[in-house]
Amino acid sequence: MEKHNFNAGPAILPRIAIENTAKAILDFNGLGMSILEISHRTKDFEAVLDEAVALFTELYNIPAGYKVLFLGGGASTQFAMVPFNLMEKKAAYLETGVWAKKAIKEAKLFGEVQVLGSSADKNFTYIPKGYTIPKDVDYFHITTNNTIYGTEIHTDYDCPVNLVADMSSDFLSRPVDVSKYALIYGGAQKNIGPAGVTVVIVREDILGKVTRILPTMLDYRTHIKEGSMFNTPPVLPIFTVKETLKWLKGIGGVKKIQEMNIAKAALLYNEIDRNKMFVGTAEKDSRSLMNICFVMNEQYAEKGDAFMEFAKGKGMVGLKGHRLVGGFRASTYNALPIESVQALVNCMQEFEKMN
User: Fold this and answer.
1) Is 99 a catalytic residue?
2) Is 190 a known active-site residue?
3) 135 is catalytic
């Protein structure tokens, strides 16, 4: 049976990236050795890292003055590393979900945190608006996509202070004006690669401004100076990221993938809105293109488990919603084909007719 992978992360990757990674595990570059066992300081791997940086720079049109880093520790380490490097006294945050809350908790270890807007009052089902960004904060932090609740920021904010964004779950899903951001970070395990590597895009001139002493490993400048190889980098995930970026460039780049993502999301949201058995959970103007969350309509609430089993029988994988919200979540990341979304829509329509 064909499987349709809606997992929220680690998530679906381009088949070509997986196949090329498998080949490199068996024999990398014809060296007669696996990429798992070569030195990260060989010219062969340095070429992989350089190509990954070049592809990121091209796909996002990253301007001069920025550096692309490949680090370990996941986005969760960045929750602390960002304020450690950037917060002298205080910073502002937007609270849009669990990951934003975790970032706020870490930032409070280093100074004053001002929460400018929060959607906690409605279980994070919308993106806050109507707040004012103070000019005396060291930076303003946003989480652009909220995997658990299915909300997303679809534009690049004009910000009077350094703008920092956690883009873990919508990296490279749409064109981004990188010049509007001081720092962008994200774990790779959604759109751009497997778990194990974190990407940071940072404008160099924001660094070195805090008075605290920074441990070597937690100082962005260390990794800039050493080209992401101060310590052994996550070699295999970086290779897969490079292959995924090659695939993205080959299909037409970020603008093309945005068109594809809009089409996929529209197909599923239209069915959710039409189908009497289901209802979307995010407010319509905040709906994510990456994580589409929905539940059973109240009058069909008892049919939830039955639909889940029916969907599994049709090859749907990873549809269960996060434990904090329940229901269903279809993650429609870059590599998910629209045919899988259509298969889910067909499944929903068939279940409706049965009930």
Assistant:
1) yes
2) yes
3) no
